[in-house]
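Worked example 4.2. Below are the chains of a multi-component assembly; read each line carefully before continuing.
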Amino acid sequence: MSEVHVGQSIFRKEGTDKVTGRARYVDDLTFPDMLHGVTVRSPIARGRLRGVQFGDGIPWHEFTIVTAQDIKDIPGANCVALILEDQPYLAHETINHPEEPILLLAHKDKYLLEEARRAITFEIEPLPAIFSIEDSLNQTETIWGEDNTFKTFLIEKGYVDAAWAQADFIVEGEYETGAQEQLYIEPNGMIAIANPTDGVTVWGSMQCPYYVHKALIKLFDLSPEKVRVVQAVTGGGFGGKEEYPSMIAGHAALLAWKAGKPVKLIYDRAEDMAATTKRHPSKTRIRTAVGKDGKLLATEIDFTIDGGAYATLSSVVLSRGTIHAAGPYNWPNVRVRSRAVATNHPPHGAFRGFGAPQSIFAMERHLNKVAQTVGLSPEELRRRNFLKSGETTSTGQVINEKIDLDSLLTRALKLSDYHVKKKRFAEFNATSAIEKKGIGFATFMHGAGFTGSGEVYLSSVVGIEATETGNVRVLTSNTEIGQGSFTIFSQIAADALGITLDQIEIAQPDTANVPNSGPTVASRTTMIVGKLVESAALGLRQTLVNSGLLGERYSAAEFAEACRQHIAKYGELKSFSKYEPPPGVHWDDEKYQGEAYGAYAWAVYVAEVTVDLTTYETRVDDFIALQEVGKVINPVLAAGQIEGGVAQAIGYALYEHVVWREGRMVNNQMTNYIMPTSADVPPIRVYFEELPYAYGPSGAKGIGELPMDGPAPAILNAIEDAIGQPSIQTFLGQIPLMPETLMKAMTAGGGND
Amino acid sequence: MTDKVSVSFTVNGESKTARVWPMARLLDVLREELQLTGTKEGCGEGECGACSVIVDGELVNSCLIPAAQIAGASVTTIEGVTAGADGERLNAVQQSFIEHGGAQCGICTPGMVLAAVSLLEKIPQPTEADIRNGLAGNLCRCTGYMKIFDSVVKACQ
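Applying the procedure described above to all two chains together yields the following structure tokens:
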């Protein structure tokens, strides 16, 4: 297979539609006789629903109204099918979080609909609610299951308890991360047509059509072929459109079922921010044993995430966070205990990185504290402990990749002019009273694909079919959400078949037409699904060769002719490929031991900051992102992924502060929840190293989540360098680090450990 | 209650008259009355810029403009930036966004392209600071802005 297109910065396949405004997002679609829908939600965090009041002045008879009772009247079940079945589409007796959906309305006039929404009041008998990890762990109230715990994990390697006695230093630290809103620029939305005869069809903004499919089958108790889910062009997801679209699709479908008309349900920004999932807040305690030579002897990590009111994806987010907690270091002894707990926040969910940014933040800040305690530089401490090829991770996975983190760090520090700048900034800071400059870095890894045996359970299938015009069409359920998946699949398929890019079509994900190739999450689309595209393409070529219609060597035109002839002679021509794990991959779900991921991406990120001691604002002045990601399929798209992830993570570190009041996000507007603008971002300089991964397409690994992991600790490490504190302070263990936090800590003399 | 009013204005060079509520948002008039769905709603409060259009030479958020206010005005939307009989000729900015990775999910792209077009009309050879400031009212969550800056720079070359 010759690489003609792979490795090239091929233009985005759907680029013209996007720059001309012709791309059709869900809110751009209309259907004859379509109604608009809205969701009426709980104003309080916890209670018992006693009644509903419909206010005066609204022609209620014109409205379609759906409550939990309507779901009882259809065959299906009132739960959003995902992992556990604890979350209802509509609350019936108990309310478990603010903004919980209780009632649905539809009407053809969306202005009147908005008035109607405001005219509804609920009688709710309040119950005490809990909003912190501490209250959940202490069971101040028991709000979920027997002990408020969705899931726990324990990873054990070596003998941690024996290590403390041999330690020259024992270093302890506590770290916290806040919630973060995905803030895709296109709010969530769905359109449904649903009736008992034809079943249910939805069009919408989503990452995972087959998640929505599974959920609607359960809600309506329909056979799979009676439910059809079509992805509209989707304006960003970042995890925020992984699980919640199942809820919205169900709501739109319930209204459409009752109304007998198409229903469009589009969230406005305030609703999207207040009601849908965010990144899990976390708390991490780390205790580390170190020798005086700086060798890391043991670590004990206690990692807890706030899952909100229902289980949703918390167990899987926790899993990834737990496995990544020890970082790319060679720990002889590790214990990671973790848990996801319930609070009365709206459920937290998937967001790029999926638990790893939280636990990696903690470890990368902690290691700077360890370095200070031992008397080594952050650089030297890491160099003495990097995981090397042949050594094992916390789950006992032997690193087979030829990764050399020592060289990667050297290169990143050189690219950022780290040593020169560190010295220069120290001199600058000695004479500058107001502005303080600093430089810091983080080293980390991110596993691609589903964790452990996840990919085996998914058993993804990809298809390729020849069309009557002699083109081929790639059939996957993986969505294009900005990351460039359609372009990447085209490059892989064109090279596998030895044909041109314009001979490749990508089917819009539609469960009626595409097989289930799994969700568009977990940095798996290029590495796992792309490999299946490659093998399905090779299968199709082999069929043509075996039929005698195609020689071993052929031109693009001859290939097209062979496709046409094959279809004329034998009818449809399709090739499917199903996931098989690479050889030697074993995972023990009970002990959490084994090959956690097929491959890891490895990275060193360096941040340069200025802290202004008048405003206490931190500005990121320069950013180097160096990563080893296997073969880069499309350099411009890949760099775009990294740059976008870094910008989101700068927001995570410094700007994006979810303000909670009684469990509800109160700054649910772009006016007061601040994400980075074009005026805020530093130059983000992206560099790749490419060690081909044997089981990825052309050697590629996953990169989507990686850039979310490193920036926050790199930036806080740089702030620590800038403000020159002798020991790490508590406030530097928390993100987002808001100016007011920094001011309070530095002016009151508070915040010291 | 006020009645609907007739508002006449020019959109992408064509005269249009729409029967609208006086306080209807220009955004809704464009999308729902004129089926110009290239203009997107991201926040509805003038923060994100996804609904940017050019009114009488100025870049504005169409979610903040009441319909009554555009009587007699000249409005350019993303559909008007693409030239030719059926919109087949791309503007240099659009072409550059395709070639240099300026668009990812595409939802901010129409507004971002209009912001860039508006900037280049005022400053044909912008500095990096001009570009950063000129686009600061248009939020993008995908790109981290680097490839957008690159697209604008290359569009001037």
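Take a moment to check your reading of the output against the notes. Strands of chain B lie at 5-11, 14-20, 52-55, 58-61, 74-76. Chain B has a mean pLDDT of 95.
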